[in-house]
Amino acid sequence: MTFTCYSAGEYGRVAVMYGGDSAEREVSLRSGEAVLNALLSAGVDAIGFDPAKEQLTELINKKVDRVLIMLHGRGGEDGAMQGALQLLRIPYTGSGVLGSALAMDKIHSKQIWQCLQLPTAKYEIAVKSRFEAGSCGAIMDKLGGKVMVKPAREGSSIGMAKVTSAKQLATAIQDAFNYDNQVLLEQYIEGPEFTVAVVQGKALPSIRMSTPHIFYDYSAKYQDDTTEYYCPSGLSDKDEQRLALLCTKAFDALSASGWGRVDVMQDKLTGEFFLLEANTVPGMTEKSLVPKAAAAANVSFSQLVLAILATSME
């Protein structure tokens, strides 16, 4: 698989923006360090930049020509930083303000996909200001008895829980309200979980994840060595193509662009795919999924990073 890339000198001075002050700071630091090292090894004039420690106007003082955003979560993946960089007239990688904001919000993502008749699981919304624990029994019945609880605007599975009773649901919602005032309550799909990376409009090979955890949570993603990744994922060629088309459609539907990742569940009985969420600045650590998918397509980590940086040239 090939991507549009440029010579190292054409990028000018590049700031890899990482860290920040979101709940995903630790992962962002690791992603940013890996990306920065790859750029330096490729001969790009690159520096690290942590907006939690420096004012954005320092980008101008440092004569930065473009920014490679490696901020995960709020403040970096939700459109806020994208808008600030646009005001500073500094090009940046990945999705713009609208695509970033929509993809960050799991509820709005599902609503858009639903309107476009793209498959997504049944759901309800819990709003902190008017939530009543007494409604949990009816919600459990409506969503099939197994529910995933997700803060609407958090990433890396932070604040998420899988519940099987009304009592558990009420507790999980209250816990999720610590992260967001809106919480997505999603029917749990029994079956394997897949993820598809999209880079420069092209879908990379899908990855299937398997974990002994209750679900693919923060620990399974970044801390444990028990999670297994399969790429090739084991899908037939037909299903691989079907999944790739679904994920690129879902990504485009949110006005996302440049690069990112779409997560999907497959019903083990029907084989139908259900969209979970999109990520516009996925992890780029040694355990991250986009580099694994790129490797399966014979794209090195360095080539992947340069392809991501090239999205700032558009």
Textual characterization of the structure:
With 314 residues, the protein is α+β, with helices and mostly antiparallel strands. It folds into 3 domains: 8-94, Rossmann fold (3-Layer(aba) Sandwich); 122-187, ATP-grasp fold, A domain (Dna Ligase, domain 1); 190-298, 2-Layer Sandwich (D-amino Acid Aminotransferase, Chain A, domain 1). The chain contains 11 helices and 13 strands. Strand 1 (13-17), helix 1 and strand 2 (45-49) form a beta-alpha-beta unit.
Q: Which terms summarize this structure?
A:
single chain; about 325 residues; alpha+beta; Rossmann fold; Dna Ligase, domain 1; D-amino Acid Aminotransferase, Chain A, domain 1; 3 domains; 6-stranded antiparallel beta sheet; 4-stranded antiparallel beta sheet; 11 helices; about 35% helix; globular; ligase; EC 6.3.2.4
Distance between the termini: 20 Å
Q: Structural class, please?
A: alpha+beta
Number of helices: 11
Instruction: Name the CATH superfamily classification of the largest domain.
Output: ATP-grasp fold, B domain
The SSE order reads: EHEHEHHHEHEEHEEEEHEHEEHH
Sheet with most strands: 6 strands, antiparallel
Mean pLDDT: 93
Task: Give the % helix.
Answer: 25-40%
CATH architecture of the largest domain: 2-Layer Sandwich
User: In total, how many domains does the architecture comprise?
Assistant: 3
CATH topology title of the largest domain: D-amino Acid Aminotransferase, Chain A, domain 1
Low-pLDDT runs of 5+ residues are none
